[in-house]
Amino acid sequence: MSSEPPPASTSTEELEADLSAATISKKQLNKEARKAAKAAKAEKAGKVEKSQAEEVDPFAANYGDVPVEEIQSKVISGRSWIDIGDLDEAAAGSSVLIRGSAQAFRPVSKKMAFVVLRQSMSTVQCVLVASADHGVSTQMVRFATSLSKESILDVEGIVSIPKEPLKATTQQVEIQVRKVYCINRAVPVLPINLEDAARSEAEFEKAEQTGEKWVRVLQDTRLNYRAIDLRTPANQAIFRIQFQVENKFREYLSSKDFIGIHSPKLISGSSEGGAAVFKLQYNGQPACLAQSPQLYKQMSICGGFGRVFEVGPVFRAENSNTHRHLCEFIGLDAEMEIKEHYFEVCDIIDGLFVAIFKHLNENCQKELETINRQYPFEPLKYLEKTLKLTYAEGIQMLKDAGTEIEPMGDLNTEAEKKLGRLVKEKYGTEFFILYRYPLAVRPFYTMPCYDDPAYSNSFDVFIRGEEIISGAQRVHTPELLRKSAIECGIDASTISSYIESFSYGAPPHGGFGVGLERVVMLFCALNNIRKTSLFPRDPQRLTP
Q: How many alpha carbons lie under 13 Å from residue 248 in its C-beta half-sphere?
């Protein structure tokens, strides 16, 4: 019986080769499988993503960015916006439309978020809760919280009363949001943080003690980005106080038969004497910016107006980099006929400023409290009848306290402050008049005293130890006026029309001037006049 030959034997090398090929084949298969699985997963994810993208939000019309063409005065819709500051419990349950800046966002979940809106000094909390019943989607919540701080928003919703008092907003109601539209987006990262800019020194000190690190917004940085800095509650309050001072100035003087005037600010010669003027060319002629409306106030008196006042810009080219000097400020000026004595002018000042102080304390409590939170200060002390002291009496008080002052010189800043402290201690007032100054330290148009020509019928008024008002009886005779101008180094030919106006019959008169910014600074005990100037102009700053 025949048998088959035994199978040929396989070499070790052939077996290893076959095994290797099988392994490679398996690896390739696994690789391709993984690749296919990955592709399938990606395809599935893409379909889901596409499905989500294509998903239509049934409430999409209730939110979004408003195209610019829609707010280019395209239509008058008849809608009515409510001021945030007017929202109170009486509005509970009503539907309102408000507009404000997005001050803060607080997402709670995908379906809920809080947005704080600010308008001027008022803030309100807006609540977004996803609900089909209220037309609010998760997409709306996501849209609202994606916006940048300080963006301008329109919000429609229902006013509600929260269960607990709100600490972070001025208004003690909430808005249950139904619609939210972005009118204008702010840049994602602002150059300064409004929360940092609004903090008090006490808050910074407390943070340092607890190890928190907050950013201090320094003065120059604030002024560089003033449009943002002005939004802080304190700044909003400061300029509302400033408006009230100006408004009361006009109101009080109007009630005393003063007439408001507007004098030129481009003049041919110095109005105060000295070299501190901004010089320029006026159609080929040398000119300067007015250091005060002084000359024209007096010429108005010569014109028969009797009593005049002006509110307007004043320019001083002084290189004074101090806490209380500006190169441009708002002057509150007044001039009036006097019958017998320049104290008639002092009496007007007395009544005017006591009225201003009372008005601020009685009618601006909200603003003063707001300023006080960031810049704490003690209320100004003043008397119903303003204290008057002679310059000599002031000098003697300083001497008695150990401060030597040149009796015929002017008071320097430190002497003024010390005198203010002494007067407060002795008389209980931080507002007083110092009169009968040495003639040498007063402007050329100041009337000398009848009994001693080394002194003058002039005065300064002080708040918290700093001078805010300068005034006097004026020279109303052309000969003496021309002589005084020349002695003060003024070219009389540049003010010839001013001097000549007193040749036509001029009544005795006097007046005063005060810087608006300085009044506000000192009433609120602020440490720098730049805080009370909207866009300050000092020796180093011409922008913004």
A: 24
Q: Examine the residue annotation and report whether 373 is marked as an active-site residue of this protein.
A: no
Q: Is 316 a catalytic residue?
A: yes
34 noted as active-site residue: no
Catalytic entry in 118, 178, 199, 324 = 324
Q: How many residues are present in the chain?
A: 544
Between 537 and 38, the more confident residue is 537
Question: Which two three-digit tokens encode residue 387?
Answer: 């204290």
Can you tell me the mean pLDDT for 354-360?
Answer: 98
The DSSP secondary structure of 192-255, one letter per residue, reads S-HHHHT--HHHHHHHHHTT-------HHHHHHTHHHHTTSHHHHHHHHHHHHHHHHHHHHHHH
Q: Is the peptide bond before 544 cis (omega within 30 degrees of 0)?
A: yes
Helix-strand-coil split of the chain, %, nearest 5:
40, 25, 35
Q: Is 362 a catalytic residue?
A: no
pLDDT digits (tens, 9 = 90+) for 61-96: 999 999 999 999 999 999 999 999 999 999 999 999
Note if 325 is an active site residue. Answer: yes
- 500 belongs to the catalytic site: no
> Which residue in 316, 476, 482, 530 is the catalytic one?
316
Neighbours of 180 (CB within 10 A): 25
Please pick, among 203, 318, 344, 466, the residue that the annotation labels catalytic. Answer: 318
268 is catalytic: no
pLDDT given for residue 48 in this prediction:
46
Mean pLDDT, residues 399-411 taken together? 92
From the list 272, 335, 367, 467, the catalytic residue is 467
Residue of 134, 226, 323, 325 marked catalytic: 325
Banded model confidence at residue 31, pLDDT cuts 50, 70, 90: low
